[in-house]
Amino acid sequence: MIETKQQVAVTHYREHNGEKSFVEILAKPLKNALGQITSIVESVHDITDLMVSQERLKEEASVLSFKATHDSLTNLPNRRLYLDRLEQSIKRANRLSSLVAVVFVDVDKFKAINDDLGHQAGDEVLIEVARRLTGIIRSCDTVARMGGDEFTLILEAFHRQNDILPILQKLQSQFAKPIQTHKGDVNISLSIGASCYPEDGESHKILLHNADIALYHVKTHGRNDARCFHQLEK
């Protein structure tokens, strides 16, 4: 303040017995006719209510932002966030000359689980599916829930299409053990279809379409399997 000759504001934070308090100290220089500082006037203001309100607004905005981009049941990214990440993944792959895999995952005969055991058990299955899928992907990959029993993954940083096949097999292997629900253990299997950028499409729409075709092939040929679009007979 001595150098700039301007008013300075400093905020002090204190927490005592779980109670937060914020104090703002204003230091204002008083100058003579020559512009020289002759004294300093300090004032102290309790701004706790203001700061707490601002923190609460930030937290509420963060919660609303999360809800807008994530599935309420599993907390996975929803369709909106998934599509945004896929666009970014394609741009990254184009820049690095690498591959991106779009993977569709369906829980086989999920409707029967809901019908036989109820929606609570069905939700418990979906939550566990989300947990297991998330547990085996890398930090650069994404698992999202598109709705119902449909999950979608983005797998990045590949250089050959066939490198994706072991990952798809690993996804299936995670469900060899039953899922525990309040109605008892539930055995499930997965149907998986995938497509690869850029070989199977250069836009997210084409990639999603071709991954869906690969998934449909699996579901119409007995389920409980994984196929990439390039493996299908053209």
Keywords:
Alpha-Beta Plaits, 3-stranded antiparallel β-sheet, alpha+beta, 5-stranded mixed β-sheet, 31% strand, 234 residues, elongated, 2 domains, single chain
Concise synopsis of the structure shown:
The chain is of the alpha+beta class and 234 residues long. Helices cover 39% and strands 31% of the residues.
**Helix/strand structural class:** alpha+beta
How much strand?
A: 25-35%
The total of beta strands comes to: 10
What's the helical proportion of residues? 25-40%
- Report the end-to-end length measured between terminal Cα atoms: 75 Å
Number of domains: 2
Based on Cα principal axes, name the global outline: elongated
Largest sheet data = 5 strands, mixed
Counting DSSP H or I runs of 4 or more residues, the number of helices is 6
The CATH architecture of the largest domain comes to 2-Layer Sandwich
- Major β-sheet strand ordering: 5-6-4-9-10
What does this structure look like?
The chain folds into two domains: 61 residues, no CATH class; 159 residues, Reverse transcriptase/Diguanylate cyclase domain (Alpha-Beta Plaits, 2-Layer Sandwich). The protein has six helices and ten strands; from the N terminus they run E-E-E-H-H-E-H-H-E-E-H-E-E-E-H-E. The strands form three sheets. The chain has a five-stranded mixed β-sheet, sandwiched between helices. Strands 1-2-3 form a three-stranded antiparallel β-sheet, covered by helices on one side. Strand 2 and strand 3 form a beta hairpin. Helix 3 crosses helix 4. The longest helix is centred in the first third of the chain and has 22 residues.
